[in-house]
Specification:
about 625 residues; mainly alpha; two-stranded antiparallel sheet; globular; POT_fam; Protein NRT1/ PTR FAMILY 7.1-like; transmembrane helix; membrane; MFS_trans_sf
Amino acid sequence: MATVDSLNTAISQKEQASKKNYVFEEMSEVERSANYDQKQKLCLNIGGVLPIRNHLGGWSSAFLLLANQGLATLAFFGVSVNLVLFLTRVLGQDNASAANNVSKWTGTVYLCSLVGAFLSDSYWGRYLTCAIFQVILVLGLVIVSLSSWLMLVKPVGCGDGILDCNPTTPIGNAIFYSGIYLVALGYGGHQPTLATFGSDQFDENNPKQKSSKAAFFCYFYFALNVGSLFSNTILVYYEDTGRWTLGFWVSAGAAVVALASFLLGSSCYRYIKPFGNPLPRVAQVFVAAIKKCKLPQVDSDKLYEVEGSESVIKGSRKILHTDEFGFLDKAAIMTEEENFGKRSAWNLCTITQVEEAKCIIRMFPIWLCTIIYSVVFTQMASLFVEQGAVMNKSLGKFNLPAASMSAFDICSVLLCTGIYQRILVPLAGRLSGNPKGITELQRMGAGIIIGMLAMIAAGVTEIERLKRVIPGQQSSSLSIFCQVPQYVLVGASEVFMYVGQLEFFNSQAPDGIKSFGSSLCMASISIGNFVSSMLVNMVMQITAKGDKPGWIPEDLNEGHMDKFYFLIACLSAIDFVIYIFCAKWYKCGNPDEDNSITQSNKEEDQGGDDVLNKV
């Protein structure tokens, strides 16, 4: 009788599905037997319901998010790419101060990625987090545009390197800075969350979609550079010729279009529910381990884990036990008192909780090794621009903006992404047997080496520039196109380092902190900017003593910026040696795939029909 009732229930639900094509999250017992895994149950549409036939997500949604990334990046770089020149020409700051302020601001941008990742993983979910931070981005760009239009760029057309601007007021400066820091908050919180939201559109339990998910991060960085290409060529030209306000308004318009396109696809996205605040979960592991530090170690099969397929972290897969950091395993040892049901989350943790904490600890040294590379990357937005500004920028009758040279970096990224994806991966895959070609850790190591070569190229360019200084002028006769090698090398290194980072941290981060994993890439850039600012200050304090102008003075012709570049190259070499040891030490965490009820391709295609087959 119960079987007949179950059959009738399944048939009724199939009829409803054919009309509405969805079922509510609260599913019947028969439906739960259809082998939907717990993570798939959290993949909802915007109405908070779960489709039987998975028409949500996939490349159609991913392409919309890639377009959003391109437009948002266009908007962001419309402000950031020429910011160092805006600070010197319009706000009247000296070179060192402007470079430091840009480094601090850029550091804040990427530090805000941690805020966005935390809110996304814990409370808001990825869709809402992306939407809110894009609104903040639009607001910041409007404030920047209004402040430059009404208060700062006076007279109109000033700040072009010829016509000086009127002295700015404290109120105008304050409004401008509030605007650019809102831009930092908006873009910083949006980008890593968008990367994770895009990867959510693919089901990693489906082999075809799993490969698409790996490719998505390549295309994500590709879209980022396509968006910045417009900013670094067209917008930078208008800004460099004194039309700053026009450039800022175009950036604001692009951000509005990005937000509108994002909201337009709301009904097509695949949504993952937030997993709750990870901070207490991780803290509970350390507190429980300290409380039980005097207990003897036990075998892994005697450690505590909840029964069933789901972990204690709602929607997260269980993680298999690993032997590293054995002292944390004590948090999962059950005492005699806890065996009889008297348990506290601050005294007893599951294996999955312990392994989540271990994953964070394991990723930390790898992340630290990426910071020096980010110092290399930072120079492209500050010292590279200042170096180019005092070189021969003429191209026939056309005067090339110094910041537009970053277009060679972008073109290098676009070209190297294609070469890597279409040539290097298949070739390396055949030689190594790894379908990814080379591992993410190997890619990141290659990025560090190429970044070091970029700093050497920049130092050599600076030596040649100083040899060709025009007497009585601040510029040099050396063509700005001599900067091309350093920009191209930085671009090539980005493909290996930042795409590798996105893949590595997103794949290695447990289910409950995926956005946090993506944000680590941007957090590395953030810390790199602050380290770069600290290095500039330290170098100037040490080298600018007495009558000496220092390595990076107001007049770069009196300094030795080449030595600063070589210093960063030396730091990169040391960093690479440390990275090799950390990469060899690192061991990947293992989600418990056997305990996760997976859905086969056939089940996904058949949808509701499979419920009847199971009955």
